[in-house]
Amino acid sequence: MITLFGWGPMFDCPSPSPYVMKSDIQLQMLGVDFDRAIADLDAVPKHKAPYVMDGDLLVEDSNFIRAHFERKLGKSLNDGLSDDHRAASWAFERMAEDHINSVLAMERWLKDENFFEGPMLFFNDVPPLARDAIVKEIRDGMAQTFYARGLGRHSEDERMQLVALDLEAIAIQLGSKPYLFGDAPSVADASVSAALISAGTEYFDTPLTGLVRGHGNLVDYMDRIQDRYFAKNLWPVAELV
């Protein structure tokens, strides 16, 4: 039995986590028959989702989940891509995950109005007397991490200028095609579409929404991905509220 652990629809997205969306899409791309269950981050060493249980085997991190099933099934999500497209595909994945998702995390977790409308829900089961201290420790740690990386040293306007360049690159690559590298979805579509859906939600008050939705082809692309992979909600309901 194979189970993907994460979270289902929240924040007007198929999942609050772009990485959970990515793994969900990639498992579907690989033709894996799997169940979905709500993550317990205290139960796994890396304290992150997504993670998968393949029988008794725990696999953590979306990249290693993909690699595990590619090895197990003897096929790759790069199959059918030219060498040039494989190289570009990995670059688009890294741009989406390491840059767009980082700016997204700052908008959700470090802006009070967004944090208390969204991520704060994940702390509802923390005892009230400890909740404020835990929340402060986590948010302060995130702020320090982003500052050390350099992204947190930029103003919000400067971060948005950089993300606008990412989105322009994705929009140019997509063009009028259904998917990034042609008529069929391939590996990068999972990471990139998940980042765009997360950044483009209108649930949060962030300039990201307008930047994403300012590209008509990206809006159509997000809708196309959601219709293909998330037309039905197969996740159990998380008891967060």
Distance between the amino and carboxyl termini: 29 Å
| Count of the separate structural domains | 1
Q: Determine the mean pLDDT.
A: 96
Please, how many helices? 9
Question: What is the third-level CATH name, the topology?
Answer: Glutathione S-transferase Yfyf (Class Pi), Chain A, domain 2
| Main sheet strand line-up | 2-1-3-4
Main sheet makeup: 4 strands, mixed
**What is the gyration radius calculated from CA atoms?**
18 Å
Order of helices and strands: EHEEEHHHHHHHH
| CATH architecture grouping | Up-down Bundle
Question: Residue ranges: pLDDT <50 for 5 or more in a row?
Answer: none
Report the portion of residues in β strands.
5-15%
Chart the SSEs and their pairings.
Layout: E1 2-6, H1 18-29, E2 35-38, E3 51-54, E4 57-60, H2 62-73, H3 83-109, H4 112-115, H5 128-149, H6 156-174, H7 187-200, H8 207-213, H9 216-229
Parallel strand pairs: 1-2
Antiparallel strand pairs: 1-3, 3-4
